[in-house]
Design a protein that fits this description.
The structure is a single chain. This protein has one domain. The protein is 32% helix and 31% strand. The protein contains three helices and five strands. It has a five-stranded mixed β-sheet, sandwiched between helices. A hairpin with a 5-residue loop joins β2 (15-23) and β3. It is globular and about 40 Å long. One of its GO terms (molecular function) is RNA-DNA hybrid ribonuclease activity. It comes from Lithospermum erythrorhizon. Pfam families: RVT_3 (PF13456).
């Protein structure tokens, strides 16, 4: 299992947005989450919070042998987490979905799998 996490911190609004996605060893989508966070005091804290939230997602779904990747830059395999984090910033909501991704993420998922 691979878990990609990312976050966006909006200093002016005092809010962060977190994104996490899990894929199996074949790159098949297993689940994702985005959520708002008001407790981060910096970009670094927001990214650490995204990892913590991603670990919670993995634990909730009994994903074992999880490799976690997080980076402040868009990198191979982390595009979906980045899109999730930047899409939700400021919306102050949360969503989790399993096994079937949202249609607007399909092209980004394909790009991640092909890189």
């Amino acid at each position: 299992m691979k878990l990609n996490c990312d976050a966006r911190w909006d200093k002016n609004r005092g809010i962060s947005s977190l994104g996490s996605i899990g894929r199996d060893d074949q790159g098949i989508f297993k689940g994702a989450r985005f959520k708002a966070c008001r407790t981060a005091s910096s970009s670094l804290v927001a990214k650490a919070t995204a990892v913590r939230d991603g670990v919670a997602l993995a634990k909730e779904n009994n994903w074992n042998d999880v490799e976690i990747e997080s980076d402040s830059k868009i990198r191979e395999g982390n595009n979906v987490a980045h899109v999730l984090a930047y899409w939700d910033c400021g919306l102050e909501r949360e969503a989790t979905w399993l096994n079937v991704p949202l249609h607007w993420l399909l092209s980004t998922l394909a790009t991640d799998c092909n890189n």
